[in-house]
Design goal:
This protein has about 120 residues and is mostly beta strands. The protein has no helices and eleven strands. Strands 2, 4, 5, 6, 9, 10 and 11 form a seven-stranded mixed beta sheet that branches. A hairpin with a 5-residue loop joins strand 5 and strand 6.
Length: about 120
């Protein structure tokens, strides 16, 4: 099993910055992708950013130029630095890890319980 714990959420004014951190533990394989997803009431959880084991990132269009995702493989952590925050960034942010337990096995997905981010204008 893999456990993920998010931290760093809170309330911030529009235009401000906030950093979120995700600590992973358990049966973590060397090749894994970590990411951050956001969910608001009444909508599906949506991708914010992901990062591969070798450090290749992807971003949602709304996050490009404002958010930066990074990871520390030695510490099994993932961080997203968010700047120029807007009210539309408000939501519960979830950390996700996906990996194959075996080299040719299926991809498994793990989620944290989320951390609230609220941006006010």
């Amino acid at each position: 099993q893999v456990q993920l714990v998010e931290s760093g959420g809170g309330l911030v004014q529009a235009g401000g910055s906030l950093n979120l951190s995700c600590a992973a533990s358990g049966n973590i394989r060397p090749i894994n992708t970590k990411g951050w997803y956001r969910q608001v009431p009444g909508k599906e959880r949506e991708l914010v950013a992901t990062i591969t084991a070798t450090g290749s990132p992807t971003y949602a269009e709304s996050a490009k130029g404002r958010f930066t995702i990074s990871r520390d493989n030695a510490k099994n952590t993932a961080t997203i630095k968010m700047t120029a925050l807007q009210p539309g960034d408000t939501g519960v942010y979830y950390c996700k890890l996906e990996q194959r337990t075996t080299g040719w096995g299926p991809v498994k997905h793990y989620w944290g319980q989320g951390t609230q981010v609220t941006v006010v204008s």
